[in-house]
Amino acid sequence: MTALKGAHVLVTGGSRGIGKALVEELYVRGAAKVYATARDPRTVTHPDAVPVALEVTDPASVAAAAAQADDVTVLINNAGAAIGASFLGSPVEDVRREFETNFYGPLLLTRAFVPVIEHNGGGHILTMHSVLSWLALGGSYSASKAALWSQTNSLRLELQPRGIAVTGVHVGYVDTDLAAGVDAPKSDPRDVAVLALDGVESGAYEVLADDITRQVKAGLAGDLAGLYAGLAK
């Protein structure tokens, strides 16, 4: 379990959507300092947050952020991209770009901040996944999130002996800019942030933030036709 009261936290993609909600909820819970990253730090609007310029796919930018936020004990990997490239119909570069953001970005952040968190006495890493980690309906997006889920599971085992706990959050559609064009039930970003940070404080390995995510996770134990209607005979 990780106490967020008094913690120093870095949130990637902290200027909007779930990231903005996480920054707000962290201060509600008594965090001492929250670094909120964005490509343009001027878009960070929380009056108490420390804006940090960050491009998650750029090793030099990641290293600079780690040097600036050298008192962090909790890292939240929230920044991501949703290209959803087709494996057959889109340029391979689009697939690669999605993996650079959704898989390699969190890996670069984790590699940069593990020594920081360890030096500061241990702490926590929270990573935002998706229900599409388990449901291959989003092309390269689903694949990148599935790979990130596997990365998180591996890192949890590697980091446990080093005093760093790891929580993964899975959620369906959320009412953010990313899903603005989607006509389907959506979670409130604030509700997702509350559940995610509850998971950090309780030491949960995974947080399933809505009903559809819980249904899909349970369906992994069944036949594939149960998850993909097109396979049903």
Protein traits:
233 residues, Rossmann fold, seven-stranded parallel sheet, 6 helices, globular
Describe the structure.
The chain has a seven-stranded parallel beta sheet, sandwiched between helices. α1 packs across α5 and α3 packs parallel to α4. It is globular. 40% of the residues lie in helices and 15% in strands. The chain has one domain: NAD(P)-binding Rossmann-like Domain (Rossmann fold), CATH 3.40.50.720. α3 links the parallel β4 and β5. The protein has 233 residues and is of the alpha/beta class. The chain is built from six helices and seven strands, in the order βαββαβαβαβαβα.
Rg value? 17 Å
As a percent range, the share of strand residues is 5-15%
- Poorly predicted residue ranges: none
Specify the biggest β-sheet. Answer: 7 strands, parallel
Overall geometric form: globular
- What is the helix content? 25-40%
Give the total of domains: 1
String of helices and strands:
EHEEHEHEHEHEH
Please report the first level of CATH classification, the CATH class.
Alpha Beta
What is this structure, in a nutshell?
By secondary structure, the protein is α/β, with parallel strands linked by helices. Helices cover 40% and strands 15% of the residues. The protein has a seven-stranded parallel β-sheet, sandwiched between helices.
Helix and strand arrangement:
Blueprint: E1 8-11, H1 17-28, E2 33-38, E3 50-53, H2 59-68, E4 74-77, H3 92-119, E5 123-128, H4 140-159, E6 164-170, H5 189-202, E7 206-208, H6 211-219
Parallel strand pairs: 1-2, 1-4, 2-3, 4-5, 5-6, 6-7
Helix pairs in contact: 1-5, 2-3, 3-4
